[in-house]
Write a structure and sequence with these properties.
Rossmann fold, 6 helices, 10 strands, binds uracil
């Protein structure tokens, strides 16, 4: 059987898996797979790295999407062609509300569509919302594992610097149309910034697929930005713990 274009996988490779964990980072596919039984790396091409394993006897995969909507849309399309129907994004994020702490997780109920790619799936009036049952399973998982979590709306941006109103870019300039946007999202009770959920939610809903998103908080934009390696690790572990535990629940409930 021929391998699919970008992911370099065939349907047979996936052993009938219906659930895919979709981190951005290729190295995180491997980290997630360490929570599976019998993990094996299936393929690595460009930003796409896929591992297969088993959760409570069910085949599951972890495939990285790369950063942003364009590469995420390729991963969703090709995984769906290979039989995946449930997508759980495990990401990292920058919080924009004061009360959210580093290491907490944000479970997105919906996303502001600032990603660009989702407009190739549906007009902007179409909402980018997570699947209810996946979201409920992620929340239950965070509660069971006693991991601090927040639910709400995520701003999902095409760019890390300008779209998230960072002034520490090459030219230190943010175009006028984007100046003041962080303050506006804060006032509208948006929780956080990341770069893939709007594409994921829109593409999945529009295609009759299911998606959820949990992201570990690695910075809080209301404070001075700085990367604390220990807290990044904690955020990653918390995100993947919630995602894997949530998937186990979905499999048990036969919702995946
Ligand atoms: N990912 C983002 O897109 N923004 C952040 O601030 C952190 C992670």
């Amino acid at each position: 059987m021929a391998n699919i274009y970008h992911l370099h996988l065939s349907k047979k490779d996936l052993r009938g898996a219906k659930i895919a964990f979709v981190p951005g980072d290729p190295d995180r596919s491997k980290i997630i797979a360490q929570a599976f039984d019998r993990p094996v790396e299936l393929a690595r091409k460009r930003e796409y790295c896929t591992w297969l394993g088993y959760l409570d006897g069910h085949p599951v995969v972890a495939t990285s999407t790369g950063i942003g909507g364009g590469s995420t849309s390729i991963a969703i399309e090709e995984l769906a062609m290979l039989g995946i129907t449930t997508f759980i994004r495990v990401g990292t994020t920058g919080a924009i509300q004061k009360h959210i702490k580093l290491g907490d997780v944000v479970i997105s109920t919906g996303s502001v569509r600032l990603d660009g790619a989702s407009e190739h799936y549906a007009p902007l009036a179409y909402p980018a919302v997570a699947d209810f049952n996946i979201t409920r399973a992620l929340v239950d998982a965070a509660q069971r594992k006693k991991i601090a979590y927040h639910t709400g709306i995520t701003a999902s941006c095409a760019t890390f610097y300008h779209g998230q109103e960072r002034y520490d870019s090459f030219r230190k300039y943010v175009p006028r149309s984007l100046q003041g946007t962080m303050k506006e999202w804060q006032a509208l009770n948006v929780m956080n910034y990341e770069m893939e959920s709007a594409t994921l939610f829109t593409a999945c809903a529009a295609n009759g697929l299911k998606a959820g998103c949990v992201a570990g908080v690695i910075v809080n934009r209301t404070q001075r930005e700085g990367v604390h390696e220990e807290l990044v690790r904690k955020a990653e572990v918390n995100g993947l713990t919630v995602a894997v535990e949530g998937a186990r629940q979905l499999l048990k409930e036969k919702r995946a």
